[in-house]
Amino acid sequence: MLPERILILGLGQTGLSVLNYCLARGITPVVMDTRSYPPGADQLPDTIEHYFGELGQGGLPLAPLLAAELIIASPGVPLATPELQQALSAGVEIIGDIELLVRDCARGDKQVPIIAITGSNGKSTVTTLVGEMAAEAGIKVGVGGNIGIPALDLLSTELELVVLELSSFQLETTPSLAARAATVLNISEDHLDRYDSLSHYRDTKLGIYRNTELAVFNREDDQTWPSVLLATNTVPTSSFGLDDQAYGRIEHDGQLWLSREGQPLMPVSELKILGSHNQLNALAAMALADKAAIPQWAQITVLRRFSGLKHRCQFVADKNGVRWINDSKATNVGATLAAIDGLASGADTAKQASGRLWLIAGGQGKGQDFSPLIPLLKNKLAAMVCFGQDRQQLLALASNTEEVPDLEQAVAWCAAQASAGDTVLFAPACASFDMYGNYQLRGEHFISLVKAL
Q: Among 31, 7, 293, which residue's Cα sits nearest to residue 138?
């Protein structure tokens, strides 16, 4: 049962879904947002008490927070915020919208199983794959969390399975998660402007394994291993990787195949998504799908047709023999490294080997260490053109870097430098918020600039 005094912290699409969830249960919440006119404000009923842009001593207004019995907070608001810490100390419970979904799925006679997916990179791809596999098999599935429609809106349909993409921020406020299967796909530096260290960020991600029926980890990345769970042997585990163990990869009939326990499942060449990182994504999806009782034929059918998500190593155009690739979703260094690997290991490797690779990067670095890009600048990249808030850190990595004021100038510079057979990759290794509302808007701008060449 929900308490009577609820405060929603953060409006927007998700906040509105929480508001509608409360109103449908006869509860009128208070709404708070630090923005003067947040997205969704025009849809707020006049009867709703709200606090917009009304900051206290440099922070959130404290009195409404302390008056609440339950705060449902946006993932964008850190729990370390002093006012939230005061509310916690006063006994106010703080959760996110995912926690409400989890509690709802656990109610009643027919509990709805949840597949939970996190990681620094690849979350949306794996979440989409598992969702499409379930739908292909005729399972009534809801896909949400950090992707697609707000999680609580999934409850408007009759569900047999929920597949959730979860950020580290969302995991902080979802204490009741007990997934049918959960995975941490990979860990690389990200959000270090919010976490004390990489280990703090990693440990938050690993929290997805608590109370899961099956922990699915990446054999190629020991930071994803559920070390504590393995040591105590309290949770069954499975794994994916590029060797022949569990969900893996083998040589069969003269080519590489995806495999389960050494048995061939499908040729890697039949995947439309390129690169070893996407082979790992496919294997992770299969491991999760098996635990969700999704038949193998449905898994293979989806893997054969899935061509990837927009803004993720998306082919944009061939202009004068130069390929332009949009990977605006590469918001951290690990994602940029994976994008370069994907291009190098694609079906047209021979073409890649004969041409040069130009990288466009920059934005908000989020406290990351950019040094893993140095070997690529020396060995794989013709040059990196840099723009955005933290461009100086990128420029300092090597001599083959170029500074420009914005994305338009970056595209123009690459168009002038590249020649037939070359590839220009937009994989920023940074968040977009210094210049764009989100990575999608950034990616769409890149696409429009390339098409206008």
A: 293
Cβ neighbourhood burial of 384 (10 Å; 0-12, 13-18, 19+): buried
Q: 123, 205, 291, 445: which one is catalytic?
A: 123
In whole angstroms, give the CA distance from residue 147 to residue 196.
26
> Residue 198 and residue 205: Cα distance in Å, rounded?
11
50 annotated active-site:
no
Phi and psi at 341, nearest 5°, equal: -60, -40
Distance, CA of 333 to CA of 121 (rounded, Å): 10
Can you give the C-alpha Rg of the chain in angstroms? 23
Determine which one of 146, 186, 218, 332 is catalytic. 146
Q: What is the pLDDT of residues 161-170, one digit of tens each?
A: 999 999 999 9
Select which of 191, 205, 366, 445 is catalytic.
191
Condensed to tens digits (0 to 9), the pLDDT of residues 48-80 reads 999 998 655 557 889 999 999 999 999 888 888
Looking at the domain assignment, is residue 154 inside a domain?
yes
What token pair was written down for 422?
Answer: 């070359």
Could you give the dihedral angle defined by the CA atoms of residues 270, 257, 292 and 137, in that order, rounded to the nearest 10 degrees?
30
Report pLDDT for 348: 38
Q: Would you call 298 helix, strand, or coil by DSSP?
A: helix
Higher-confidence residue of 277 and 266: namely 266
Q: Are strands 423-426 and 322-326 parallel, antiparallel or unpaired?
A: parallel
In a domain, 57, yes or no: yes
Claim to verify: residue 258 and residue 123 sit in the same structural domain: yes
Q: Confirm whether 428 is domain-assigned.
A: yes
Residue 324 pairs in a beta bridge with 317, 424
305, 336, 354: which is the final residue of a domain?
305
Alpha carbon 330 to its chain's center: 10
Task: Give the separation between CA 340 and CA 358, rounded to whole angstroms.
Answer: 10
Is 291 one of the annotated active-site residues of the chain?
no
Locate 170 and state its tokens.
């969302």
Q: Would you call 211 a catalytic residue per the annotation?
A: no
pLDDT, position 192? 66
The torsion region of residue 293 among left (phi > 0), alpha (psi -120 to 50) and beta comes to left
